[in-house]
Write a structure and sequence with these properties.
Number of helices: 2
Largest sheet: 7 strands, mixed
Distance between the termini: 12 Å
Shape: globular
CATH architecture: Roll
Radius of gyration: 13 Å
Strand order of the largest sheet: 3-2-1-6-5-4-7
Order of helices and strands: HEEEEEEHE
Structural class: alpha/beta
Helix content: 10-25%
CATH topology: PH-domain like
Strand content: 35-45%
C-alpha cells in the first residue's frame, strides 16, 4: 500500500517533476512558473489514496502532461474534503487513462 508521498516520489522518478496547483482559475506549474488552461493539459493517470484511519487522508494524485512537454502532478483531497473549484477545472482536462486504485504502482 503506497502513501501519497511514495506515489509522488515514483512519479518524480518518471520525470513528472512539476508541482501543479490551481491559481486564479488556471493550472499553475510551481517549478517553471507557467500557467496552463485545462485544454493545454492531459491527465495521464489518476491515483486514488484512501487513508487507513482518517477520512481527511483521502487524496487523488493526477499525473499530468502539458502540450509543451512539461510533466508533473496535482494533488487533491476527495470526499468531504474535496475542493469544488479544483474539481471543476480538473473535469475540463482530457483524460488518457481513467484511474488506478492506490495499491497500483505508478
Amino acid at each position: 500500500m503506497q502513501t501519497v508521498l511514495e506515489i509522488i516520489q515514483s512519479l518524480r522518478k518518471k520525470n513528472y517533476s512539476e508541482n501543479f496547483e490551481i491559481k486564479h482559475g488556471k493550472i499553475y506549474a510551481k517549478n517553471s512558473g507557467m500557467n496552463f488552461k485545462p485544454e493545454e493539459l492531459i491527465i495521464e493517470k489518476t491515483y486514488r489514496y484512501e487513508g487507513d484511519s482518517n477520512p481527511s487522508d483521502n487524496a487523488i494524485v493526477y499525473a499530468i502532461t502539458a502540450k509543451n512537454g512539461a510533466k508533473g502532478y496535482l494533488l487533491d483531497s476527495y470526499g468531504a474534503y474535496s475542493d469544488a473549484g479544483l474539481a471543476k477545472i480538473i473535469s475540463n482536462i482530457p483524460v488518457r487513462e481513467e484511474h488506478d486504485l492506490q495499491d497500483t504502482k505508478p
